[in-house]
Amino acid sequence: MTTRQVPHPTLDERREAGKLARKRMPRSSLEGWQPADDRPDPVGLLETQNEAREPDLVPVRHGRMMVSPFTFYRGGAKIMAADLARIPRAGLDVQVCGDAHLSNFGAYASPERTLVFDLNDFDETLPGPFEYDVARLAASFVVASRDNGFEASRSAEAAATSVAAYRTAMSGFADMRNLDVWYSRLDAQEIVARATANVKKSGRKLAAAAEKNIEKARTRDSLQALSKLTEVINGHRRISSAPPVVVPARELAEAYGFAPDDLWPVLQERLRSYRSTLLHDRRRLLEQFELIDFARKVVGVGSVGTRAWIALLQGRDGEDPLFLQVKEATASVLEDHLPKSRFRQPGERVVQGQRLMQAASDIFLGWTKGVQEGRFYYWRQLRDMKASALIELFDPEAMNYYAGVCGWTLARAHARSGDPVAISAYLGSSDRFDRAMTDFAVRYADQNERDYDVFVQAIRSGRLEATEGV
User: Which of 30, 54, 185, 284 is the most buried (most CB within 10 A)?
Assistant: First the structure.
């Protein structure tokens, strides 16, 4: 067995690596971005993804994406991945989220039951250029700001703020000890307090809305899900049927090639397989819960059509529920353009990437292989005090504040897996990188609108089918 040699360059060597990267790839390289002449058809890329998705849910995905250019952007990670593959990059890699738009940040409960703010979607995570995440985040602020009706200058300002916050935060992490970087986190309450202090015009209103959102999040747990998602049938607690959003497994068994009586042993075996990927103490905790029911549940925008399930487990009695979400993991959209994941199981790729990037991760985060060939899943709690920012209610000042929070958070996630010293040395102290990335973000938002128009026309022409309002 060979042991991998881990290099330990000095601080001076790490800074020099960042400065050399500037010479290879100037920080202004992203200015003036234009789509490639042989750019893939965006609708064709979506159709490729749809081939492996649930046929009855693909129209639901399209319906959610056609609501606005912003919802289209949320579902178009594969489209942007093809564009990002051709942008200039410095050669400084990190564990990237792969889909770091502003709605993939939010609050959730840490194992210590504190509400923390962090990235919360890792379906596309992979080692890659740090610029990929910064670009997707910055462009998302332009797209979302336009969706809210902001003037062009305010939309660009939000993008610039996210990039500047990333750069200045990375400079701070470059000066910190390794353990201090690792333990850094943002508490949700701290974000609310900062909003009151730093957002002049709408700070109090923003803080009040955020506080209300946080209080609501504290009630979003398995016990609340029990009242919303289940009913008692013949004396037994079961997940309620509400197609196409929620469909119990008992109603889908034959569609997946199982006799109803054969389904339960299969689900029990998958649960045992997943349980084996947990740390020993968490495995012992999960063993105290009994599997009660299983159902397909549609979630999100971009992931609609992949197989997503919920599992109802019961602890000491009927008032001690645990809901787990079981999401299908496929190859990252970045794997079309970057080296394949070192993990052959996509579910493990998602879990390991999430653990590396998040300040605190779900204690029940694990993975398993599906029953059918080529299907892989990762497991986590369905509701664990999760809360998302109410983007559609933001005014320009609130959007700008949120951009700074997301920029800091993304820098912290990258500093855990990459080299903050080298990245900071590359970014420097001026706003040169900020201006270039903001220019890219505005231009990419323009491209996203053109792609959205093509997408909507494909629906109207009958090339794609869409089900709206689901």
Answer: 30
Task: Give all strands (DSSP E) within 175-228, no chain letters.
Answer: 186-187
Give, as one character, the DSSP assignment of residue 91.
S
Residue 198, amino acid: N
Sequential DSSP letters for 330-393: ---GGGGTSPPPS-SSHHHHHHHHHHHH-SS--TT-EEEE-SSTT-EEEEEES-SS-B---GGG
R_g (Cα) of the chain, nearest Å: 22
**Spatial contact of 57 and 328, defined as CB atoms under 8 Å apart:** no
Q: Are 277 and 206 in contact (CB under 8 A)?
A: no
Q: Which H or E element spans position 404?
A: helix 396-417
Q: Which residues contact 141 (CB under 8 A, 6 or more apart)?
A: 102, 155, 158, 159, 161, 162, 399, 403, 441
Instruction: Tell me the Ramachandran region of residue 235: left when phi exceeds 0, alpha when psi lies from -120 to 50, beta otherwise.
Output: left
Residue with tokens 């809305």: 209
User: Sign of the CA dihedral 264, 267, 273, 275?
Assistant: negative
What single string gives the DSSP state of each residue in 68-89?
-HHHHHHH-HHHHHHHHTTS--
Distance, CA of 37 to CA of 34 (rounded, Å): 9
What is the C-alpha to C-alpha distance for residues 72 and 78, in angstroms, rounded to an integer? 11
Do 120 and 410 touch, CB atoms closer than 8 A? no
Bridge partners of 209? none
- CA distance linking residue 264 with residue 404, whole number of Å: 48
pTM as predicted: 0.94
- Show pLDDT as tens, one digit a residue, over the chain (470 residues): 456 788 999 999 999 999 999 999 999 999 999 999 999 999 999 999 999 899 989 999 999 999 999 999 999 999 999 999 999 999 999 999 999 999 999 999 888 888 899 999 999 999 999 999 999 999 999 999 999 999 999 999 999 999 999 999 999 999 999 999 999 999 988 887 777 766 666 666 766 777 787 788 788 889 888 999 999 988 889 999 998 889 998 888 777 767 767 788 889 999 999 999 999 999 999 999 999 999 999 888 888 888 899 999 999 999 999 999 999 999 999 999 999 999 989 999 999 999 999 999 999 999 999 888 889 999 999 988 888 888 998 999 999 999 999 999 999 999 999 999 999 999 999 999 999 999 999 999 999 999 999 999 999 999 999 999 98
